[in-house]
Amino acid sequence: MAGPGQIPGRYNLIIADEYEAFDHQMPVEEFLQRLKDDNVPDEVSVVGLADAFRDGDLAVNLAQEMDRRANDLEYQSPTVQFVFDGSFHRSGKTYDLRDGEELHSLQEVFGPQLERKEDGNWLLAPF
Question: What single string gives the DSSP state of each residue in 37-67?
Answer without folding.
Answer: TT---SEEEEE-HHHHHHHSHHHHHHHHHHH
